[in-house]
TrEMBL record, chain B:
Domain of life (superkingdom): Bacteria
PANTHER family per UniProt: ABC TRANSPORTER PERMEASE PROTEIN MG189-RELATED, ABC TRANSPORTER PERMEASE PROTEIN MG189-RELATED-RELATED
Membrane topology: Multi-pass membrane protein
Name recorded for this polypeptide: Carbohydrate ABC transporter permease
Domain ABC transmembrane type-1, residue spans: 69-262
InterPro entries: MetI-like, MetI-like_sf
Coiled-coil stretches: none
Length: 311, 277
């Protein structure tokens, strides 16, 4: 905000300083167009255009043969009775509930931990972010191997500690949780970095003052850190939502929606409809549904974690 | 006394954290150098009885693994270069020039941050099919070049540079493009590094769209190729964990090299933009 004000202020200064020589605003428009054109062309054709076209296609029946017929809202009507679609929404929401709270809570704790002065914390930070930069398909394969029912190392340790083997990916009731664990492992470091940046933005004087006032560490954390972290938390929640709703790679590699439909999320179902059953129209309707869910989530999030403009 | 306890507790916690994040990778590496018979034996062992590289040679001999790697490298590098070129120009205009519609254009671009490729891949696919772009490098490179994160990062960076820089140059009679090329770009190295690593890793890891756009085995990118090793994806495949893990380990290496070299910028990039490439 302050940035924008500053730059427009500077621009105004510019205008007055060049007054009389040439009308800067007009000439800048032309130059700006030159700078913008290459990007905008690619952006329009490969991003904005398709995004808008998707909404239009959702009103058509369009199979791979290319035959195209307008069917109004029939694709959306079909959703109402399509039990697989209902399952996919439910799974997406469950998956969301399974991943969001641990991701926020654990990354906040991890960030608080890494924010202390100690040797080796930079190593810790780098290590924590490694899972995030790995190819998600690779992450899926590695975890599949650890989750293996018979030879998996996780079951080995569980049995060693006296537990009984868990059918991580083959039990319908467990599979979604197993995938959620992998996602938490993958995204934890990324969220931690976001929180760390937020923590480092809190002025040190506030902590010193509260220590002088005799507040305990816990009190300081609850009364100073958390409220001041609100904008960061709000951003992390939004990003985590967008990331989990669009999640595809790991689930595709690990379970491909199975067993049964127990890990079928909306994006999985979208892929199956459009690129395995070749129903582009219906797939586009699911795309629109994904968008709507995202918008609703962000809307709710904004209500709950409203950032006060004054802060 | 208590302070010492506290201190050692901290380090134990740090070690636990590192173990949690590195354990799966270490285990994958340990298993990739075992013969398949030993992988499928109980109890699992960290140190193999017989050390072998046969899993690695199998991957390289029986699959077009190196072609996949080359495809990934070409598309990721070209995609990243295109992003650097297109986005630095556009972001410069958005960040430094005053013109009508600037806010509208910037707002539209940034809104697309919230719209994942899943939400527009069907029209994209239909369009690429129509113009014969499917199964080419271009079908992967162009959609990745329409990058939004880079616009977000670079625009706010260009905005933050002091005005006096270009005013002096303008008085000296430099054109806008010269100012951009000779003065602004050299100053932008940190921001450009951030964009480079964020977008390169995103391109390198990209999975869903390349899987849809590429149909021939030889043209696959590394992530899509590696996924073929998984039983749940390809039920016909002679699925063996050893080869799959060896394929995984080899794919991790380039990411790790790039990441460790540029991790500072990567971390800064996430911290300032909060968005992956």
């Amino acid at each position: 905000m302050s940035n924008r004000q500053m730059s427009s202020g500077a621009a105004a200064r510019n205008l007055t300083s060049t007054k009389g020589t040439k009308p800067l605003r007009a000439s800048q428009g032309k130059i700006a167009a030159l700078f913008l054109l290459p990007y905008l062309a690619v952006f329009l054709v490969f991003r904005l255009g398709p995004s808008i076209a998707g909404i239009a296609i959702s009103f058509f029946k369009w199979d791979l043969a290319g035959s195209l017929s307008f069917i109004g809202i029939n694709n959306f009507k079909r959703m109402l009775t399509d039990s697989n679609f209902h399952t996919s929404i439910l799974n997406t929401l469950i998956f969301f509930v399974l991943t969001l709270p641990p991701l926020i809570l654990l990354s906040l704790l991890l960030a608080a931990f890494f924010n202390q002065k100690m040797r080796g914390r930079n190593v810790g930070r780098v290590v924590a972010i490694i899972p995030y930069v790995l190819i998600p398909a690779v992450v899926g394969i590695i975890w599949n191997w650890m989750y293996d029912n018979n030879f998996g190392i996780l079951n080995f340790y569980i049995k060693k500690m006296g537990g009984s083997a868990i059918h991580w990916l083959t039990n319908e009731h467990v599979a979604l949780i197993s995938v959620a664990i992998v996602i938490i492992w993958s995204f934890l470091g990324y969220n931690t970095i976001l929180f760390l940046a937020g923590l480092q933005g809190i002025p040190k004087e506030l902590y010193e003052a509260s220590l002088i006032d005799g507040a305990t560490r816990f009190q300081t954390f609850m009364k100073i850190t958390l409220p001041l972290l609100k904008p960061t938390t709000s951003m992390v929640v939004t990003l985590t939502m967008v990331n989990t709703v669009q999640l595809f790679d790991q689930i595709y590699v690990m379970t491909n929606g199975g067993p049964g439909t127990s890990t079928l999320t909306m994006v999985q179902y979208l892929y199956t409809s459009a690129f395995q059953n070749y129903e582009m129209g219906y797939g586009s309707a699911i795309e629109v549904a994904v968008l709507i869910i995202l918008v609703i989530m962000i809307f709710i999030q904004n209500k709950f974690l409203k950032v006060d403009e004054g802060v | 006394m208590e302070k010492g306890m506290r201190q050692s507790l901290k380090y134990i916690l740090l070690i636990v954290i590192c173990v949690v994040f590195l354990f799966p990778l270490a285990w994958a590496l340990a298993c990739s150098i075992k013969p398949e018979s030993e992988i499928l034996s109980y109890p699992p062992k960290w140190i193999p009885d017989t050390f072998t590289v046969s899993n690695y040679t199998t991957v390289l001999e029986k699959y077009p693994y190196l072609s996949w790697g080359a495809n990934s490298l070409i598309t990721a590098v070209c995609g990243t270069l295109m992003i650097l070129f297109l986005s630095s120009l556009a972001a410069y205009a958005l960040g430094r020039f005053e013109f009508r519609g600037r806010k509208l254009i910037y707002g539209t671009i940034v809104t697309m941050l919230l719209i994942p490729i899943q939400a527009y891949m069907i029209p994209l696919y239909l369009m690429c099919a129509k113009i014969g772009l499917l199964n080419t490098y271009a079908s992967i490179i162009f959609p990745s070049a329409a990058n939004v994160t880079s616009i977000f990062i670079l625009t706010s960076f260009f905005k933050s540079l002091p005005r006096e820089l270009e005013e002096a140059a303008r008085i000296d009679g430099c054109g806008e493009f010269t100012i951009f090329l000779k003065i602004m770009l050299p100053l932008s190295k940190p921001a450009l590094s951030t964009v480079t690593i964020l977008t390169f890793i995103a391109n390198w890891n990209s999975f869903l769209w390349p899987m849809i756009a590429i149909r021939s085995d030889k043209m696959l990118t590394l992530p899509v190729g590696i996924a073929q090793f998984m039983g749940s994806v390809n039920s016909n495949a002679q699925f063996q964990y050893g080869t799959a893990l060896a394929a995984c380990c080899m794919a991790i290496i380039p990411t790790m090299v790039v990441f460790l070299l540029l991790q500072r910028y990567f971390v800064e990039g996430i911290a300032t933009s909060g968005i992956k490439g």
